[in-house]
Amino acid sequence: MNSHDFVIGFDADDTLWHNETNFERVHERYRALLAHYHDAATVDAALLATEKRNIPLYGYGAKGFTLSAIETAIQLTDGKIGATEIRQLLELGRSMLEHPVELLDGVREILAGLAPRHPLVLITKGDLRDQERKVAKSGLADFFRAVEIVSEKDAASYAAILRQHRITPQRFLMVGNSIKSDILPVVELGGAGVHIPYHITWELEHATPPSGAEGRFFAAGKMAELPAIVAGWSARK
Ligand SMILES: [Mg+2]
Fold first, then answer.
1. Which whole number is the average pLDDT over 110-117?
2. What residue ranges do the domains of the chain occupy?
3. Dihedral angle, C-alpha 187, 190, 196, 200, nearest 10 °
4. How far apart are CA 51 and CA 236, in angstroms?
5. Fewer beta carbons within 10 angstroms: which end of the chain, N or C?
6. pLDDT digits 0-9 by tens, 152-206
7. Residues surrounding ion ligand 1 at CB below 5 Å
8. pLDDT of residue 214
C-alpha cells in the first residue's frame, strides 16, 4: 500500500456474511441429538468447555467444532453414543462447510462505494480452506487488495499483516463484529476500529469495548453507517 493511504480492514464472518446463524442451526440439532441424555444448558456448557480447551490445537472453524462436538457427545453419554449418531454429527459438520454464503444487508454496495477511495483488506480467521471457499463464493474478492486468513486475530498477527502490506497503524481502520478479535488488537497497535455487532456473539468472542481510544473507536449499529464514519476518521488526520 502507499504510505499515505487510509486503509480499511474488514472481518468476514458475521461482518460481511452470516456465520453465527449457521453455528446456531447446528447447535439446535446437536441439542436435539443429545436431548434424551441431558438438557440443553448442560449440552451447551459442555460443548463450549471442550471447544475452549481444543482451540489451541484445532484452531477456529467448522472442522475443529465437529471434533469437539463428537468428543463432547462421547463424554456426555459416557461412551454410549453410537456410530449412527456420530455419522449424524459428521454430516452436521459437513453441512456447515457446504452452507451457502449469505451476505449481510448492504455489504456489496458499501464495499463498492469505499473501494475506489481506500485500499480494502479482508482479515479473517478459521479453517483456511473453508475461509477461501467463502471468500470465493461471496463474490466480494475483487473489492480487496489483499485477503489474509490467520489462525488467531491478535496484536501480533495484525502487526505482521500491517508490516507486510506497508500499512501505517495510524492510517488503518478495522471493521468487524468482534470487539475481542477485530477491535482491541488494532486499537492496541495505534489503529482504529469500527464495531458493528451481529445479533449473536459467540461466547468466546465476548469482550469490553476499549477505553481511552478517543477518535479511534466507533460503535456502529449497522454497515450503512460506515461510509460516514470512514469519512470523519480520514478527514481528522
Ligand atoms: Mg466475525
1. 97
2. 7-17+102-235, 20-97
3. -30
4. 42
5. C
6. 999 999 999 999 999 999 999 999 999 999 999 999 999 999 999 999 888 888 8
7. 11, 13-14, 177-178
8. 87
* Single pTM value for the model: 0.94
Q: Cα(65) to centroid of ligand 1, in Å?
A: 16
Distance 107 CA to ligand 1 centre (A): 14
Query: How far is the centre of ligand 1, averaged over its atoms, from the C-alpha of 19 (Å)?
Result: 8
Task: Compute the distance from residue 83 Cα to the ligand 1 centre, in Å.
Answer: 33
The span from the CA of 102 to the CA of 20, in Å, is 12
Q: What is the CATH number of domain 20-97?
A: 1.10.150.240
Q: Tell how far the Cα of 77 is from the centroid of ligand 1, in angstroms.
A: 32
Predicted confidence (pLDDT) at residue 3 exceeds the cutoff of 80: no
Question: 7-17+102-235 and 20-97 share one CATH topology?
Answer: no
pLDDT digits (tens, 9 = 90+) for 23-65: 999 999 999 999 999 999 999 999 999 999 999 999 999 999 9
Instruction: For 7-17+102-235, give the CATH class.
Output: alpha beta
CA 26 – CA 28 distance, rounded (Å): 5
Report the mean per-residue pLDDT for the chain: 95
Alpha carbon distance, N-terminus to C-terminus of the chain: 18
Assigned C-alpha cell, 142: 475483487
Residue 99 CA, ligand 1 centroid: distance in Å: 17
Give the span between the Cα atoms of 222 and 208, in whole angstroms. 19
- Measured between alpha carbons, how far is 103 from 108 in angstroms, rounded to an integer? 8
| Separation of CA 37 and ligand 1 centre (Å) | 32
